[in-house]
């Protein structure tokens, strides 16, 4: 327990100390809020869909979390050659606990990033249905973060170079983000796109955020929660299986 | 202290280590000497539970690496070929995490961390983040960290690669002192002949996954009828240059060096 805690704490210290990285990773979400949120606002309103920025903000929070979480999961690739991973692999503890400490740490960091973006979106004019909504959405942000950190770790455990990393970003993370309903409503989509959204883990995360923050869920909170928890279990299981085979 | 019996490691079809057997006595300083790609690192990884042998058995401090990995892990400290410190954390924090991972009680952890950081002359830098350290300082910190849980054996994989002579010299003086005072067994790999000859009591020369000779430097010279260990080494392993294929790890290593401005 102590060991998992110290590995978690390590990730938080690293996060806290890399201020420039924190600021850098906030630029992209802010651009989305600014360019899309304000840019498409008028069109969205004319279509009778209300305030686009309000609709978009939960999606941008989801984007922040998926990128941050996958990155920290995929750090394993780099870390096993030049980093701290070897130090933990020769320590007297089960591999599963190493993975758990890392994953919980990465997920906590991704959640913090998501919270910062949520607060920033308030400055851009985002208003949740009520102030408590922000508190209720945090556990769901953590679930989404945990799901993607576990996925990132699982993938990184079977890749052995950095080229694979770029591939995963372009062929997995970007499509997941763009096809998740983070940017557009899931109602009335063409069938193909609706089907893709349905098998996309991020859709359920963004949907839960929207449900809690602006009272506009699509699948419903029960389904969202069930899918998120189910996938967390699946990804952690896959991660622990692959991670236990990591050779350096 | 270390017993290796008929150990083989295959990666797909490549045999990296081929039916290797040797034993290291308690309190001994032992060198694995060999050209690039000879199987030195692979051997160390098997001794330290990072790789599972395809065949054969390894015991470290009386524990079997496959059956009792945690007891084996508590028995040794290691300095890897590539850095394994968390550079965003301070020297002290790196020590602290190591102590927690090896179940060293807090009081003892603090006491030993202080003692070891003084030993490697980093005590006044304990609160600096490791990324501002030079290559030599990092190596010294890795040695201090590896010793924190009072291991019986210290493994070092090419520990002096890229270090200047001063740092190399001080590093070996720490390790010799430790070997003398505590009786810590030391096993290291290198491709510097003079280092093996000067530091190690016995040397195993490994080439293409096999041990081609084992003995004291004097015995190896006598066996080959050569005057220097370098000539003995060349007589045993041939003069052909070994080109390692640029695998992903080597590419990453090259990138790392260019990024960090290291030689």
What does this structure look like?
The complex is a heterodimer of chains A (248) and B (263). Chain A is mainly α. Chain A has one domain (2-243). Chain A is 79% helix and 0% strand. Chain A is built from 11 helices and no strands. Chain A has helices at 2-17, 19-39, 41-46, 52-82, 85-89, 95-123, 133-158, 162-178, 191-198, 201-214, 221-243. The longest helix of chain A has 31 residues, at 52-82. In chain A, 49% of the residues are buried. With 263 residues, chain B is an alpha/beta fold. Chain B has one domain (2-86, 134-260): P-loop containing nucleotide triphosphate hydrolases (Rossmann fold), CATH 3.40.50. Chain B has 10 helices and 10 strands. In chain B, helix 3 runs parallel beside helix 5 and helix 8 packs across helix 9. The longest helix of chain B has 18 residues, at 165-182. Chain B is globular. In chain B, 41% of the residues are buried. Chains A and B meet through helix 1, helix 4 and helix 5 of A and helix 2, helix 3 and helix 10 of B.
């Amino acid at each position: 327990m102590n060991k998992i805690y110290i590995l978690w704490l390590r990730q938080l210290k690293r996060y806290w100390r890399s201020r420039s990285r924190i600021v850098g990773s906030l630029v992209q979400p802010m651009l989305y809020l600014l360019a899309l949120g304000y840019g498409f606002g008028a069109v969205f309103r004319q279509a009778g869909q209300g305030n686009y920025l309000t609709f978009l903000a939960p999606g941008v929070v989801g984007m922040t979390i998926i990128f941050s979480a996958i990155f920290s999961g995929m750090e394993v690739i780099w870390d096993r050659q030049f980093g701290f991973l070897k130090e933990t692999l020769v320590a007297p503890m089960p591999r599963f606990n190493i993975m758990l400490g890392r994953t919980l740490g990465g997920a906590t960091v991704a959640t913090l990033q998501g919270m910062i973006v949520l607060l920033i979106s308030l400055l851009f004019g985002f208003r949740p249905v009520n102030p408590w909504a922000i508190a209720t959405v945090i556990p769901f942000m953590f679930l989404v973060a945990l799901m993607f950190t576990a996925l990132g770790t699982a993938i990184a455990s079977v890749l052995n170079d950095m080229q694979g990393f770029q591939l995963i970003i372009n062929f997995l993370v970007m499509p997941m983000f763009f096809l998740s309903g983070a940017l557009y409503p899931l109602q009335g989509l063409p069938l193909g796109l609706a089907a893709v959204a349905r098998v996309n883990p991020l859709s359920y995360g963004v949907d839960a955020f929207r449900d809690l923050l602006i009272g506009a869920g699509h699948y419903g909170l029960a389904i969202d929660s069930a899918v998120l928890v189910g996938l967390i279990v699946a990804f952690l299981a896959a991660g622990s299986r692959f991670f236990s085979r990591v050779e350096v | 202290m270390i017993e290796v019996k008929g150990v083989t490691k295959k990666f797909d079809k490549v045999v990296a280590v081929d039916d290797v057997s040797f034993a290291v006595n308690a309190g001994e300083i032992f060198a694995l000497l060999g050209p690039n790609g000879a199987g030195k690192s692979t051997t160390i990884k098997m001794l330290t539970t990072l790789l599972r042998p395809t065949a054969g058995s390894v015991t470290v401090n009386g524990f079997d690496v496959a059956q009792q990995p945690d007891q084996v892990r508590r028995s040794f400290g290691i300095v890897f070929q590539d850095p394994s410190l968390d550079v965003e954390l301070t020297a002290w924090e790196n020590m602290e995490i190591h102590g927690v991972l090896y179940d060293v009680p807090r009081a003892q952890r603090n006491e030993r961390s202080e003692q070891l950081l003084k030993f490697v002359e980093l005590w006044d830098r304990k609160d600096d983040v490791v990324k501002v350290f030079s290559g030599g300082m990092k190596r010294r910190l890795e040695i201090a960290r590896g010793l924190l849980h009072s291991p019986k054996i210290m493994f070092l994989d090419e520990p002096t690669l890229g270090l200047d002579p001063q740092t190399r010299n001080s590093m070996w003086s720490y390790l010799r002192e430790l070997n003398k005072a505590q009786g810590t067994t030391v096993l290291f790999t290198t491709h510097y002949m003079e280092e093996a000859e000067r530091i190690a009591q016995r040397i195993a020369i490994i080439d293409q996954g096999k041990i081609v000779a084992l003995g004291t430097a004097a015995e190896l010279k006598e066996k080959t009828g050569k005057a220097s260990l370098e000539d003995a080494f060349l007589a045993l392993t041939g003069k052909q240059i070994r080109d390692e294929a640029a695998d992903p790890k080597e590419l990453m290593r090259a990138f790392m060096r260019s990024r960090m401005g290291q030689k």
